[in-house]
Amino acid sequence: MERTVLHCDLNNFYASVECLYKPDIRNKPVAVCGSQSTRHGIVLAKNYMAKKYNIKTGEAIYEAKKKCPNLIIVKPNYKLYLKFSRLAFNIYKRYTDMIEPFGIDECWLDVTGSAKLFGSGSKIASEIKEQLKKELGITASIGVSYNKIFAKLASDMKKPDAITLIDKNNFKDIVWPFPVDNLMYIGCSTAEKLNKSGIFTIGELAHASPSFLMQKLGKWGETLWAFANGYDETPIEKAENEPLIKGIGNSLTTPKDLICNEEVKLLFYVLADSVAERLRRHNLKGKTVQISIKASDMKTIERQEQLSHYTFISTEIAEKAFKIFLRCWNWEKSVRLLGIRVTNLANADSYVQLSFLDDNKETRRQLLEICMDNIRERYGHYSVQRALLMTNAQNRLLHKDMENRLEGGICCKRQDEISNR
């Protein structure tokens, strides 16, 4: 039986939600931007009025203002966006329980089993689109196809408030003329390699030899060839299934560049507190600590090492992260961003091998951090803090800034969020 897959993409999501709550800016160019004072001063999302000025996601605020001097800048409200994302998800669940999120504003839906109740994929897409507009006041572009790759491509073709169908009869005419980098999972680097081999369109990729592509791109080349030919059979997870979490992490761009080990150590403790708290919340422990460092020249490196045991204790995570940093950083440049990610996860209730020499330090540390979670939940995050972070005003500011701007995420089995709002 041929599948029917929808890809729902909420149009200009952040900006659309902001305009709902601010009627006076609805018909003006609007951009949702990060904080300039904390060096997140880039465009996160924009409405269609702003798009007419060629304002792009990711560009600096001053660049956007040059293109559109009357651009209205709005600060992001992530709690509000998550609320609307959940409300949209509830609408999707009326038609199927097979839903796979792809970021905060995109989802795949497998409605194959819903056809007898609700009609064709296009009819279901039309109903969803109208309900989103009627109940939430936002629009969506929906792609309808027989696999995830083409459904995603279809939703990108017409915006806003549109439905595009790609089926087995028309996909060669619609999909193959597109540039090769329009195909999902093909980034700039892969596209450049394909272009150097004379492959510029998805159709040329589909007609290339799989063995030639494997020679150029490894096993991934054969996978891309299958995607271009419409052979994608990747399943969609059911909505009630908890996604398989591969890692939990957070990163922070600092208000000013870090210039010494002591500043780095402080920030690692702040990040580790956040990561460890979320590990405990999901009843997980991790064994691998990964750090990311972005230098003042915007170049990023990542390094990782394993712990001797699984843990959700913030001190152990921070200490390991700092040791990794000391081994790989020589301070030729200052540090703009730091990140910690814990991977190689296991259920916190799993059995572990104990040592005869164990003096219960590990158990006491775990109970201490769980106790801190309970206190913070009842009296607020700042009711319990590390003395290290209270040594001076700058450290207190850094800690509070981190708490206010936790934008890290749970890195799930699916690809990390990619958004072109």
Question: If you had to describe this structure to a student in words, what would you say it looks like?
Answer:
By secondary structure, the chain is an alpha+beta fold. It contains 16 helices and 13 strands. The strands form three sheets. It has a five-stranded mixed sheet with strand order 5-6-1-7-8. A hairpin with a 4-residue loop joins strand 10 and strand 11 (300-311). Helix 4 (78-92) crosses helix 6, helix 11 (210-217) crosses helix 12 and helix 13 (261-281) packs across helix 14 (314-328). The longest helix has 21 residues, at 261-281.
SSE inventory with pairings:
Layout: E1 5-10, H1 13-21, E2 30-33, E3 43-46, H2 48-51, H3 61-67, E4 72-74, H4 78-92, E5 99-101, E6 106-110, H5 115-118, H6 121-136, E7 140-145, H7 148-157, E8 163-165, H8 171-175, H9 188-196, H10 202-207, H11 210-217, H12 219-228, E9 245-258, H13 261-281, E10 284-295, E11 300-311, H14 314-328, E12 335-347, H15 361-379, H16 393-404, E13 410-412
Parallel strand pairs: 2-4, 7-8
Antiparallel strand pairs: 1-6, 1-7, 2-3, 5-6, 9-12, 9-13, 10-11, 10-12
| Secondary structure: number of strands | 13
Q: Structural class from helices and strands?
A: alpha+beta
Helical content stands at: 40-55%
Strand order of the largest sheet: 5-6-1-7-8
For the termini, the CA-CA separation is 34 Å
Low-confidence stretches: 406-421
Number of helices: 16
Radius of gyration: 24 Å
Largest sheet: 5 strands, mixed
Strand/helix succession: EHEEHHEHEEHHEHEHHHHHEHEEHEHHE
Mean pLDDT score, rounded? 85
Which outline best applies? globular
Q: Per DSSP, what share of the residues sits in E-state strands of 2 or more residues?
A: 15-25%
